[in-house]
What does this fold into?
Amino acid sequence: MPGICPPWLSLLLTCGLRHRGQDPFRIVGPFVQEGATVADVGCGPGFFTGPMAHLAGETGRVIAVDVQQGMLNRARNAARRVGMAERIDFRHATDTDLKLDEGLDFVLAFAVLHEMRDAKGALEQITAALRPGGRLLLAEPTFHVHKPKFTETVRLAESTGLYWVDIVDIRMSHAAVLRRD
Ligand SMILES: C[S@@+](CC[C@H](N)C(=O)[O-])C[C@H]1O[C@@H](n2cnc3c(N)ncnc32)[C@H](O)[C@@H]1O
It folds into this structure.
């Protein structure tokens, strides 16, 4: 799929170097409480999905969506290896439907918005899926997305009914936390 990170680049997204610079437990830990229902939008090979399932615990649930079946297969295999697959609902998204449920406590959209053909449509779906008070962590790689473009994406998220609450320090990323009223 043009403009979209192909599954064969998964090694880059899951390598040890990334674990050191972008520790997934440190990044999503503050947002995923035990028993929470959360979503990993554009989960790719599952770098954050397994840790989210671990943090959500036995009573929590993770919805992992991606537009590429090859990425979902990799994410499922990675989750199996760490015994987390049972807690994760893997869903094949389309360009127009993220296949999210409503009432989510938290959504992660990490390094994905810039790949989407319809970022506004995706943000509208994310906002509708969050429960009141639910949060979105929106992060984009500084390598691909310059600051003005990221600011534009945050504005787009705000236009769908979220409000900006915080910035987060994540290596090689622009990152913002937004909350639904
Ligand atoms: C650069 S990867 C990042 C993966 C993961 N979030 C991470 O940080 O490791 C972007 C992912 O977003 C997915 N993606 C792109 N457009 C999408 C869309 N419209 N809906 C769902 N997933 C999408 C791609 O297939 C790819 O797996």
